[in-house]
Write a structure and sequence with these properties.
It contains 20 helices and 16 strands. It has 620 residues and is of the alpha+beta class. The N and C termini lie far apart (131 Å).
C-alpha cells in the first residue's frame, strides 16, 4: 500500500489566510468544495423529506419544491407510517418542557438568589429568542433528518436594544470536513446560505458597495418555468468558524464572506468561544461522524415495503379480485339480464349462473402487509395506540394511566436525556450571547412575563462567574401531564403527608380550576412573596391583619432556617426574625381570653364535682 503525503502548504485552510479579500475567497472556495462533498448527504435528506411527505429544496434556490405541486402528492407514500410515527414523537416530546436549573456549589445566600434570577433571565431568553416556539419544528427536523441545529445570534431592534435570536438551520446547510468531524467534534464549521441582497446590506452597512457588486445567486438545477419567475435578488453567503486550538489561544477565527469581500467587522474576526454558536441535537447519536439518524431513516425500508405491498394488493384487487359469472355450456340465458343492479331476476334453463370470485392475493401477503404496517411504531418505541392517540380499553384510573405512560416512555428515556443536554447547551449559548450584548450595552435587559405581571431584569445584576454555578436541565414537572394521572399523583403525596392542602391545590394546576386555585393559594404566595422581597431589598415588610397568621409563622420559621443554612447575611436573618416575632405578637394579641373562674367553693367542701345521689332501692 502506498501512502501519499500532500504538501500542506498547497492546501492551506481558509482560516490561516490574511483577513480581508484573501480570507473571503479562501472561505468561499472551501465552502463550495465542501458543498460538493456533501452532495450525498443532500440526496439522502431529499429522499427522507419526500418519504415524510414534505419535499425540501436542497439547493437553497428557487426550485419547484418552493411551491406545492401534484408531483409532491403523487410521490408521497400511500400509507405514510413514517409521517405518523414522526408526528407522534413530536407531539409526545414537545409536551415536556425542559428547563435549565442553575445550581450553586454550597454558595452563599446572595449567590443562590442571583442564580435564581439568572435562571429566570435564561427562561425568559428561551422564550424571547423564539426557541420555545421553534422546538416542535426542531424536533421534527431531528426525527426526519436525524439532527437539528439552532444558531444563536443577537439582533439590534429599531429601539436600539439588543435581542437574542434563535434561528433554525436546516442540517444540509452545515458543512464540515468529514475527516475533521469523524469523532463528532469538528474544529471548523461552515454555514452556506442564500440571502436577500438588501437584507445583507442592512446587516453589513459598511460593505454595501461590495454587496451591491456581488453576483446574484443562480440555481443551475431550477426548471425553466421557475427561472422565468425568479424575481428575488439573492446572494450566496458563507459563514465560517474555527475554534481556538486551546484555552486562551488566539487562533480562533470567524468570517462572513461573499465573492471577493469579507463582511465581518474587524472587531469580530477573532473567535474566542470554545464552542460553535449552534445547539445540536441528534435523534440517534452516530457511532462515527457528526450527523445523527432519524426515525424516517430507521423505517425507510419498512415504508418502502408497505408501499410495495399496498400497490401489489391494490393491483391484485383491481385485476384478479373482480367478480365474474360462470355459465355451463348448455345454459340458456339472456345475457342482457346479467347486470349489476340489485334485485335483478335472471331467467335460465339448465344450470344457473355461478358467481366466481378469487382473492386478489394470498393470505400470506395480507399477513405480511399487516406486520409491515405495525413495524414502524415498534422500531421507534411507540405503540399503534400512541400514534392514534387512543388509550387502551379499561385504562381509566389515574394510577393505571400513569403506569402505562411510564412504560411507553422507557424507550424515549435516552432521547430525553440528550434533549436535556441540548437545552443545557442552549442555556450556556444564551449566557455567552447575553454577555456580548451586555458588553455592547451595559443596560441590556429582558422583559418577560412573570407569574402575575411583566418583569424586567438587567443582565449585569444577575450575571455570575462560570465557576460559581452548574447548569442542569430537568423536565418542567415530574408530575404526569394527563389530568387523571396528575391528580392521582398529587393526591398520593398529600395522603402520605408530603403536601398541605394549599400545596396540593397549587400542584394540581388545572386550567378549569385556575381561578379557584389562585384564591386558595393566595395566602401561601403572599407570605412567601413578602419573605423573599425582604431578603432581596433589605427592607422590612411587617405582617398585617390580612395575612393568615398561623401560616405566616410556619413559613417564616422554615424560611429563617433555610436562609441561615444557606449563609444569608445577618441583616437578612434579622429581618426574618423580626417578622416571626411580630407574627407571634399578632397571634398572642388575637388569642381568645381564658374562660372566667367559677364561684368560690364552700369552706371544708371536698374538691371536685358534688356526689351523685344513691340509686333507689328495689321495690321502692
Amino acid at each position: 500500500m502506498t501512502i501519499t503525503i500532500q504538501d500542506s502548504a498547497s492546501r492551506d485552510p481558509w482560516f490561516t489566510n490574511d483577513a480581508g479579500e484573501e480570507r473571503a475567497n479562501a472561505l468561499v472556495s472551501a465552502g463550495r468544495a465542501l458543498w460538493r462533498t456533501h452532495a450525498g448527504v443532500r440526496s439522502l435528506y431529499d429522499a427522507l423529506a419526500r418519504m415524510y411527505g414534505n419535499p425540501i429544496d436542497v439547493s437553497d434556490g428557487a426550485t419547484s419544491f418552493a411551491l406545492p405541486s401534484i408531483n409532491a402528492v403523487e410521490s408521497a407514500p400511500t400509507i405514510n407510517k413514517a409521517k405518523s410515527v414522526v408526528d407522534t414523537f413530536v407531539s409526545n416530546t414537545s409536551q415536556v418542557t425542559i428547563r435549565p436549573m442553575f445550581l450553586t456549589n454550597r454558595g452563599n445566600w446572595d449567590d443562590m438568589q442571583k442564580a435564581k434570577r439568572l435562571q429566570k433571565f435564561v427562561d425568559g431568553g428561551l422564550y424571547v429568542s423564539g426557541f420555545r416556539e421553534l422546538e416542535p419544528l426542531l424536533l421534527r427536523d431531528a426525527a426526519v433528518f436525524g439532527s437539528y441545529f439552532v444558531k444563536w445570534r443577537a439582533e439590534k431592534q429599531a429601539n436600539q436594544k439588543w435581542k437574542p435570536v434563535a434561528e433554525r438551520v436546516i442540517p444540509y446547510q452545515i458543512l464540515f470536513d468529514p475527516r475533521d468531524a469523524r469523532f463528532g467534534k469538528p474544529t471548523m464549521l461552515i454555514q452556506r446560505s442564500v440571502w436577500d441582497r438588501r437584507r445583507l446590506m442592512a446587516l453589513f452597512p459598511k460593505q454595501k458597495k461590495a454587496i451591491a457588486a456581488a453576483n446574484s445567486f443562480v440555481d443551475e438545477h431550477a426548471p425553466a418555468n421557475m427561472m422565468e419567475a425568479d424575481f428575488a435578488d439573492l446572494i450566496e453567503v458563507f459563514e465560517g468558524w474555527h475554534l481556538p486550538s486551546a484555552p486562551g489561544a488566539d487562533d480562533g477565527v470567524y468570517c462572513v464572506a461573499i465573492d471577493d469581500a469579507e463582511l465581518t467587522a474587524e472587531e469580530d474576526r477573532e473567535y474566542t468561544d470554545p464552542r460553535f454558536p449552534f445547539t445540536r441535537f441528534c435523534y440517534e447519536e452516530p457511532n462515527h461522524g457528526y450527523l445523527g439518524t432519524g426515525i424516517v431513516q430507521q423505517v425507510f425500508k419498512v415504508q418502502q415495503c408497505i408501499d410495495d405491498l399496498f400497490n401489489r394488493i391494490s393491483e391484485g384487487i383491481e385485476t384478479v379480485a373482480v367478480p365474474r359469472i360462470g355459465l355451463s355450456n348448455g345454459a340458456e340465458i339472456v345475457k342482457s339480464e346479467l347486470t349489476d343492479e340489485p334485485g335483478t331476476v335472471v331467467r335460465s334453463s339448465g344450470d344457473p349462473p355461478i358467481p366466481l370470485v378469487w382473492p386478489g392475493m394470498s393470505q400470506d401477503v395480507y399477513m405480511h402487509f399487516r406486520w409491515a404496517v405495525d413495524m414502524p411504531e415498534a422500531l421507534a418505541g411507540f405503540s399503534t395506540l400512541d400514534t392514534q392517540a387512543i388509550k387502551p380499553a379499561g385504562l381509566n384510573s389515574g394510577a393505571a394511566q400513569r403506569a402505562y405512560a411510564d412504560i411507553t416512555a422507557k424507550r424515549q428515556t435516552e432521547r430525553l436525556k440528550r434533549r436535556e443536554q441540548a437545552t443545557c447547551d442552549a442555556a450556556k449559548q444564551l449566557i455567552a450571547l447575553f454577555r456580548r450584548c451586555a458588553a455592547a450595552d451595559p443596560k441590556f435587559s429582558l422583559t418577560f412575563r412573570g407569574k402575575h405581571d411583566l418583569e424586567e431584569i438587567v443582565f449585569k445584576d444577575v450575571d455570575l462567574d462560570d465557576d460559581a454555578y452548574d447548569v442542569q436541565c430537568f423536565s418542567s414537572s415530574f408530575l404526569p401531564l394527563e389530568p387523571g394521572a396528575r391528580i392521582q399523583a398529587v393526591n398520593e403525596m398529600a395522603q402520605n403527608g408530603y403536601l398541605s392542602r394549599a400545596e396540593t391545590r397549587f400542584l394540581i394546576d388545572m386550567p378549569d380550576l385556575s381561578a379557584l386555585n389562585e384564591l386558595e393559594v393566595a395566602p401561601f404566595e403572599l407570605v412567601l412573596d413578602r419573605l423573599h422581597r425582604m431578603v432581596e431589598t433589605g427592607k422590612y415588610l411587617p405582617p398585617d391583619g390580612t395575612m393568615d397568621a398561623d401560616l405566616a409563622l410556619k413559613l417564616g420559621l422554615k424560611f429563617l432556617n433555610l436562609i441561615e443554612i444557606r449563609g444569608a447575611s445577618d441583616e437578612s436573618q434579622g429581618l426574618i426574625r423580626r417578622f416571626v416575632v411580630d407574627v407571634e405578637r399578632m397571634l398572642s394579641k388575637n388569642a381568645a381570653p381564658p374562660p372566667p373562674a367559677g364561684p368560690p367553693m364552700m369552706p371544708g367542701a371536698p374538691g371536685g364535682a358534688p356526689p351523685m345521689p344513691p340509686p333507689p332501692m328495689p321495690g321502692a
